[in-house]
Specification:
- This protein is α+β, with helices and mostly antiparallel strands.
- It has one domain.
- Helix content is 32%, strand content 17%.
- It has five helices and five strands, in the order H-H-E-E-E-H-E-E-H-H.
- The termini are far apart.
Amino acid sequence: MRRALLSLCLVLASVVLIDAAKPIYGFIEPMPAAKLKRLFPAAAVFTPRGEVDPIHFTAYDRDPALPGARTLGYAFWTIDLVPGELGYHGHIHMLVGMTTTGRITGVIMDLNTEPYGDISIDLPEFAAQFTGKSIRDKFEAGDDIDIVSRATISVRAAARTVRESSRMAARALLKPADLR
């Protein structure tokens, strides 16, 4: 009996460890209201993340059903738009806000497993570099994005991820004449 109980405990512990080691690249917070509010402080309403291509949230100054409601911008998970972009260790999940003129309102680092993330892409200073950038900017590590020694691959991957996802969203959601 004791041996059977020990075996059962070992099996359960193995299941827990295997489950913990599963990749996290598929995780996306369905309605990150507090994060969206950080990207669009003036917004009163955010649409739920839909299945429209590209998958995104829309920020409005008031209920979009009311007359005169204005779209303030869009937010999207980078993993939704560029799932093939990898850092040194894997996927880098960021929530990006973009105005209707193609300017980045902010980037929120959400989830990554980069080995030197704590000294590079996890720092608030890293995400702050994107605020105010046009989707037409370079987003090049070492040029308009600061590089961090020992975390070059992570920084380059994160910058590419923001660049490619924001340009993809802009192509689908914005008019070229509105870009500034």
